Amino acid sequence: MFFKSFVGRVYTKSNNKKRDFDMSGASWSGEIAAAVAPGFPTPFVGIVGMAAVFCGFLVGLSKAGLPGAGIVVVPIMAGIMPARESVGFLLPILIVGDVFAIVYWRRHVDWRQLFRLFPCTFLGVGGGYFALRAITSRQLLPVIGAIVLSMIALKWWNSARAEKGIEIPRSLWLASVTGTVAGATSMMANAAGPIIVIYLLSMGMEKRNLIGTSAWFFFVLNLFKTPFGGNLDLITMESLKANCLFVPVILIGGICGVFLAQRIPQKQFNLVVELIAAGTALCLCVKGLM
């Protein structure tokens, strides 16, 4: 009931009161329902719930062992609920996944890289906060789509460079730029995962250190973002109650991520996830521009 209440009502800062969303086929929710299960007599909220639970599972999976899976979550959540509210709704879910990952991978962390990234990351969060104050949910849809597509393109570009033996420089300016962009994109769309993964890979990290270092980075970053999300009314008591329903499935995803980390070829898994994310992101771009 908490999730049903949350997706049906959100708080808008412009008028400081609840706004009821139409659950009919003419609304954004009806469009998603028709796309997911055309002609199937399942209530829309049930479909939204299943999609959100799937996203919670993917969060746990990606945080604890399969980083590529997390990129799908952002465009899916932005499609099944208002884009701005999806940013705040995801944040506590991400923090739960971060906690699971840092507990399991606590012995695998490169603090030197984290301290190089954090200062400019926090500045980037500030920039993303002011951008979110001035943007609407419909305006944010193509922004999220473009960010996800850009990150996928950057990952593919980085892979092509690696195959040619071209090394990315390891200077402080690269850490500063990476941190700034990661902070801004994380605040605006929770889409900084590929940026940090690419950066850490370019630093020559092996898989366990990459997972552990990434988990600590996003745990600190997401905690830092929380007051900003609350100030923008993107995190409310109502949304937090809904978040609690997803803790079990996040933990299940985390356990599966640890189990599968060494058993599924990462390259093939990432390719499938990136193609799904690219298709979803393109849909967001089209919907936001219509």
What is the domain total for the residues?
1
Q: List the helices and strands in order.
A: HEEHHHHHHHHHHHH
Distance between the termini: 32 Å
Give the strand content: under 5%
Shape: globular
Coarse structural class:
mainly alpha
For the largest beta-sheet, the strand count, sense and barrel status come to: 2 strands, antiparallel
Instruction: Kindly report the spatial arrangement of strands forming the biggest sheet.
Output: 1-2
How would you describe this structure to a colleague?
74% of the residues lie in helices and 3% in strands. It is mostly helical. The chain has a two-stranded antiparallel ribbon. A hairpin with a 4-residue loop joins β1 and β2 (17-20). α3 (44-64) packs antiparallel against α4, α3 (44-64) packs across α12 and α4 runs antiparallel to α7. The chain starts with a helix and ends with a helix.
Write the layout of secondary structure elements.
Blueprint: H1 2-8, E1 9-12, E2 17-20, H2 28-36, H3 44-64, H4 73-80, H5 83-104, H6 111-133, H7 137-163, H8 172-189, H9 193-202, H10 207-231, H11 237-244, H12 247-260, H13 266-289
Antiparallel strand pairs: 1-2
Helix pairs in contact: 1-11, 3-4, 3-5, 3-12, 4-5, 4-7, 4-13, 5-10, 5-11, 5-12, 6-8, 6-10, 7-13, 8-9, 9-10
